[in-house]
Amino acid sequence: MTSHLRPTRHFTPRSTWMNDPNGLVHVDGLWHLFFQTNPEGVDWGNMSWGHATSPDLLTWTEHDVALRFSEHEAVFSGSVVVDHDNTSGLGEGDAPPLVALYTSHYKPTSPRAGTQAQSLAWSTDGGMTWRRFAGNPVLCRQSADFRDPKVFRHATGWVMVAVEADHRQVVLYRSGDLLAWEHLSTFGPLGATEGVWECPDLFELPVEGGPGTAWVLVVSLGAGGPAGGSGTQYFVGDFDGTTFTPLPGDTGRWLDVGPDHYAAVSFDNTGERRVMIGWASNWAYAHRTPTPTWRSSMSLAREVSLRRSREGRPVLHQHPVLPEDLLQQRLVVPAGGRTTLTLTTEDGRDPLVLTVDAGQDRITLDRSRCGDVTFSPDFPTLVEAPLPGHAGAVDVLVVVDASVVEVYALDGALTLTAQVFPAAPLTTAQVRDD
Ligand code: FRU
Is ligand 1 within 6 A of the CB of residue 19? Predict the structure, then answer.
């Protein structure tokens, strides 16, 4: 039985495969999560957009598949925007249309076989049903690896970031109507480039304590992540409407130092707030995780902000939207001290061991004895990361939800997400200070 492995507050698909979050959008008080799914099984394939909604980012209801694969096209990752001014002309009545830009991955039977291009679909019923645009694709570069469009509203119009995955590049486009796109600029390669670049995002945030704002470019990496396999990096810099320029010396940071946080992108239409969700798995072993009736989970929703590090660089801080009913452990590791948190099943089995060393500035998560670890040789059992610079004591928040563990340290300056597959729920916590 694996039902105890199904998280309650992290979204999981009922009975299918899942990877990236897609089309995150907040509309009329409802949070929409679309996601890469295989409507016909628990393995990757037949890629389509699944759909779930939540009033509070904690309780999710799964709906019918929103965009289904077709004879010629798999529906890869993309985004949704609320077209408030009906720039696309696709609206009906007073309500603005929702417009999705997604990647058409053309199958061998298609005249476009071997290429990926960006297509459009729209909804006039608040995101429940979608129509494909007859003029698809709306943006084609004759490229085999051009994908994952993320669109946002900017003073200059609509801006799209997408990837040339193999080239490790983010490509930027602009449009007035979401239909016709012109190339603006190209970013990268820079920072981590071992794996293909996927699922970019670009947004502006105030720098807390000032001055001004900065832009954050997020890009996921298919391999070479911080704990092996896939991971997500980000750059901080400026976007002038055409070009993203990282701050001098910025060669990227990890968004999350754990093994299980990928393809994280932010919601559209959230006003001043910036809320992200990532896929809580890793391409190195996602297809083998031991939950045979569904595959994988999303991360908790995280509100992100920019603050200056001790060296004066703006860095992201992440704060989870937190449920009351999950096991939450808050620790303060004293300056120079070391604290070990051991989580086990009620009868003391399957230990998961988190060590936070404020003297050595290291955090480790040992999942080697926590239940099933043998399903893949690529499932790392010891995760280790440096703690970013701090003044002394280290605050740590640990959230456990069945098979997903999220660690937030230093007020969210460091996050570590990891899957675990214990034989029974990890309900018992023991803390030791050395
Ligand atoms: C990232 C990714 C995307 C692609 C999708 C296909 O995990 O490879 O680049 O659009 O998954 O499922």
Answer: yes
